[in-house]
Design goal:
Layout: E1 3-6, H1 12-25, H2 43-47, E2 53-59, E3 62-71, E4 79-87, H3 96-110, E5 115-120, H4 125-133, E6 137-139, E7 153-158
Parallel strand pairs: 4-5
Antiparallel strand pairs: 1-2, 2-3, 3-4, 5-7, 6-7
């Protein structure tokens, strides 16, 4: 049975390995994407601050993926970003992405964010379909400064 919980320090290595494996599998560039983010090896420390959270999907001690919310770097106070939402192939298509987005958006609303931003790659069609279903819509350019110069699809959602 899959459990969704907040990231712990002991998850850092396994989580970074899972995220890099997924990014490699889907063929993202190693530069200008989450693959090269320095915080990837320190997810607990990165999200262990106010108005930030990262959730992992775990089963029997094994990490299968995760998703997080944090303030969008170099953006207005009320804009957060859905960050690093990646899952191993074995758990895709069973509804966990939907559950994770809901948990993340609930956290964002509770923390007084008014907008949630996402950036992705054009060929990540399944992810985009889910984002659109959850009320995100496309915008014409990036917001903030994520450092993800290879990501050229941008979406935003007004939160309740």
């Amino acid at each position: 049975m899959f459990k969704i919980r907040q990231v712990c320090k002991k998850d850092n290595l396994n989580l970074s390995n899972v995220i890099r494996a997924v990014l490699t599998e889907i063929g993202v560039p190693k530069k200008g994407t989450a693959y090269s983010d320095p915080e990837l090896d320190f997810m607990f420390e990165t999200y262990n601050k106010k108005r930030s959270i990262y959730y992992v999907v775990e089963n029997s001690g094994k990490i299968y993926g995760g998703a997080g919310i944090a303030h969008l770097n170099h953006a207005d106070y009320d804009i957060c970003e859905l960050q690093k939402m990646y899952f191993l192939p074995s758990i895709r298509g069973i509804g966990l992405g939907n559950v994770m987005i809901e948990k993340c958006l609930d956290f964002a609303s509770y923390n007084k964010f008014k907008y949630c931003y996402i950036e992705t790659l054009p060929y990540m069609k399944a992810a985009q379909k889910l984002y659109l279903k959850k009320g995100f819509y496309y915008i014409n350019g990036p917001l903030g400064n994520t450092g993800h110069t290879s990501c050229n699809v941008w979406l935003i959602k007004k939160l309740k």
